[in-house]
Amino acid sequence: MFVNLSEPRKSRQQLKRDREKGITEMRGVISTWNKNKIKNYLYNRNKRYSTSDAGMAAILQRFIHTHEFKIGDMSEELKSGFDIVRIISKNSKIYFQTTDLIYEFIRCYKEVIISYDRQSAQTYYHKLLQDYERSVRMVNKKLEIEEEIRIVY
Q: How many CA atoms lie within 13 A of 35 on its CB side?
């Protein structure tokens, strides 16, 4: 990955506006996708849209605000949704705001996750919490590196 140091730095508000604009655009696109299309997007197999933090945040917001998962749903649908959240938490393109959405997802669907774990002898609740912690550490490392680059240049 190359860092272009000749670009002018964007202010925090410009970055926030750009992120919100990207989330709004991706929210409209992602609203019609099924979970398989979402997985293809996350694995960067979608030719039209490349994976971005805004897209991942839009996916998490969709899951949280539409209450897509309920206790007693088909186990494959739940498993697929939980796997999507795990994929997002392992992606290196996420920022802190997205990690907050991951935690909000876990909090929002805690009962559903625990119920699924009991029915199918899985440990998704534990796995999701571990992935969340890993994502926070990864974002912290990324911010440390960006700060070092700013100090040096």
A: 14
Residue 11 · residue 59 · CB < 8 Å: no
Distances (CA, A) of 136 to 2, 62, 94, 132: 23, 21, 9, 6
* DSSP letter for each residue of the chain: ----TTSPPPPHHHHHHHHHHHHHHHHHHHTT--HHHHHHHHTT--SSS---HHHHHHHHHHHHHHT---TTS-HHHHHHHHHHHHHHHH-TT--HHHHHHHHHHHHHTHHHHHHHHHHHT--HHHHHHHHHHHHHHHHHHHHHHHHHHHHH-
pLDDT in tens, 93-142: 898 899 999 999 999 999 999 999 988 888 899 999 999 999 999 999 98
Domain ranges of the chain: 12-152
What sign does the dihedral 117-61-45-89 (CA atoms) show?
A: negative
Q: Rounded distance, CA 98 to CA 42, Å? A: 14
